[in-house]
Structure formats: structure tokens, C-alpha cells
Amino acid sequence: MEKERPTVGTGIFIRKNGKILMGKRKGTLGGGTWALPGGHLEMGETFEECVTREIFEETGLEVQNIKFITAQNNIFDDGISRHFVTLLFSADWKSGEPKNLEPDKCERWEWFTWGDFPEPLFIPTKNFIETGINPLEI
Ligand code: 8DG
Ligand code: MG
Prior knowledge:
By secondary structure, this protein is mainly beta. The chain has one domain (7-137): Nucleoside Triphosphate Pyrophosphohydrolase (Alpha-Beta Complex). It has helices at residues 47-59, 123-129; strands spanning 7-16, 19-25, 34-35, 62-76, 82-95, 106-113. Strands 1, 2, 3, 4, 5 and 6 form a six-stranded mixed beta sheet that branches. A hairpin with an 8-residue loop joins strand 2 and strand 3 (34-35).
């Protein structure tokens, strides 16, 4: 059997009028926690294509000014062992109202002011916020 290796994920801070978008996750990994829109990098995709596609598939929003912020090494050991290298991006809202287009994976989307976050946060999202980097100011 082939050895399992980490996969690549993306998380995006979508900025609109000083707020950012988060969704309440459903499912085994981080179910019930609030996280950024995002998902797996698919075979042959550029980072920008992945960001644009994931946001559109999950929320129906269009974004612009996609910028790489940082990478995280996310090892989940709580029962399900999964390992992601997550690339974090910022992007500006361009058009649309967030719709819950994948209701099996997300309970709802909401805009949040920086510092006024919902709880509980998805662990990788919490870890990023604790770095002190503010995606609204970069
Ligand atoms: P699926 O088809 O794989 O179910 O959906 P997906 O949209 O591609 O997967 P996802 O679960 O939303 O994201 C892929 C992984 O990326 C996720 O399982 C864990 C990792 N990840 C982080 N941080 C973040 C984040 O802030 N948001 C999201 N959506 N995923 C993140 O490590
Ligand atoms: Mg996703």
C-alpha cells in the first residue's frame, strides 16, 4: 500500500466593508466550528484557480485581488488523523451575496468584524488569528 502523504488546502479571508466571511462547518473534521471558506487544491490547479473555485462553489461569491498570506502545517490527531498544508489568502469581495451552496458541509455563512469572532473557531483558523496578522490591514 502506498504511504499516505499530507494534502494541500486553502483558506481565504474574504474582505468586505471591514468584515470577513466565516462558515460553520459540518462533518467529522471541525464540525460545529467556524472556519474560512476554502478547500482542497485539485490536480493541475493554480492557487488562484483553487481560491476562485472554492469560494464560488461554497458561497457563490466572486472575489478579486487574491494575495498569499502564509502557510500552515495542520496536523489533526483527534481520532481522525489528517494532515494538511494549508495556504492562507486574502481576497476582496467583488460581487454576490453569500449563499450556502454546500449545505451538507456548512450550516451558514456570516460576515464578522475583525476581533469579534464567533466561537468555537476551527483550530487552524484560531491558530492563524493568534499570530496577530490582520488580513484586513495587509
Ligand atoms: P471536500 O470536497 O474535500 O469535502 O471539500 P473541501 O472544500 O475541498 O474541503 P474542506 O474540508 O473545506 O478543506 C480542506 C481542508 O483544508 C480541511 O479539511 C482542513 C484544511 N483547512 C485548514 N484550514 C482551513 C480553513 O480555514 N478553511 C477550510 N475550508 N479548510 C481549512 O487547515
Ligand atoms: Mg471547503
